[in-house]
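Hi V.,

Quick status before I head out on leave. The structure for the redesign project is tokenized and pasted below; the design run finished overnight.
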């Protein structure tokens, strides 16, 4: 049984934010997106609803590069009449792709850190969903969320997610993937022309929101100018990319070659293979060995 390590030598016990927890992709057809993720070689969880919300998800769980665990959440609308936290509007206006980032942290401490840095937020919220840890047997997964206002976190909004039941979310049967992925290496984002990072991201990346940690552990957050982005993604089909680190790049390449998916070798940036957004939930999927 795989279990997420809850301590890390670089993380002080009072750190409000530890690192990247998960990346959220917004999709218009959740069943179709789940099928695409499986074709990419990912093991996915069953599609489950968020209790009391009009959304549902399927997740791709990873051990993480530092044994802290991370994952990809593929999120869709199940009932817009209940309330979707703006997901239906986002899909109508911007289409599929990267919706937000979730940081692994401690809700009460994160709310206090936002207050200390003048970052407005919505307080501490509770979220629940059921997970089939064992086929045919569901277990309630519970979370505490702290969502700051988007303004200071541009170009992609984020929130803090505290896991109350990590053993349910990172069940062993979810963390093994045919494409060999171990975890998320980086999230890459193209900045709009003339824009700068908001004060929230500046505070995060300089360590102000993470206690004595120089920066959050786990996946890197990388921001690019339009010119630099074009060096890696000249086709410019999306402004975001998720970089997955794999155990054996040769085997991953062989898997992709047999998958029937359109992909290409990376010509710049990380060494590896790039799958186009249309087959990866609206953002580029990059598979690398980390070099």
């Amino acid at each position: 049984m795989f279990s997420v390590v809850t301590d890390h030598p670089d993380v002080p016990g009072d750190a409000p934010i530890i690192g990247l927890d998960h990346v959220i992709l917004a999709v218009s057809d959740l069943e179709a997106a789940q099928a695409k993720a499986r074709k990419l070689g990912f093991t996915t969880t069953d599609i489950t609803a968020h209790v009391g919300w009009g959304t549902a998800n399927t997740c791709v769980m990873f051990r993480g590069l530092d044994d802290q665990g991370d994952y990809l959440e593929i999120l869709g609308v199940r009932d817009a009449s209940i309330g979707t936290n703006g997901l239906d509007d986002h899909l109508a206006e911007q289409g599929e792709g990267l919706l937000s980032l979730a940081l692994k942290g401690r809700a009460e401490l994160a709310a206090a850190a936002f207050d200390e840095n003048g970052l407005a937020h919505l307080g501490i919220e509770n979220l629940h969903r059921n997970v089939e840890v064992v086929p045919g047997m569901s277990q309630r997964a519970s979370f505490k969320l702290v969502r700051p206002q988007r303004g200071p976190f541009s170009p992609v909004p984020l929130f803090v997610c505290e896991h109350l039941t990590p053993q349910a979310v990172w069940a062993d049967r979810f963390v093994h993937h045919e494409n060999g992925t171990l975890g998320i290496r980086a999230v890459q984002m193209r900045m709009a022309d003339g824009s700068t990072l908001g004060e929230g991201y500046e505070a995060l990346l300089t360590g102000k929101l993470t206690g004595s940690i120089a920066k959050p552990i786990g996946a890197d957050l990388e921001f690019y100018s339009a010119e630099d982005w074009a060096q890696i993604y000249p086709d410019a089909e999306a402004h975001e990319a998720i970089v997955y680190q794999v155990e054996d790049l040769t085997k991953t390449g062989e898997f992709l070659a047999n998958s029937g998916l359109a992909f290409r070798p990376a010509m710049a940036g990380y060494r590896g293979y790039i799958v186009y957004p249309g087959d990866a939930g609206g953002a580029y999927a990059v598979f690398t060995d980390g070099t």
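Above is the designed sequence. The chain has two domains: 17-174, 181-288.

G. will cover questions while I'm gone.

Best,
W.
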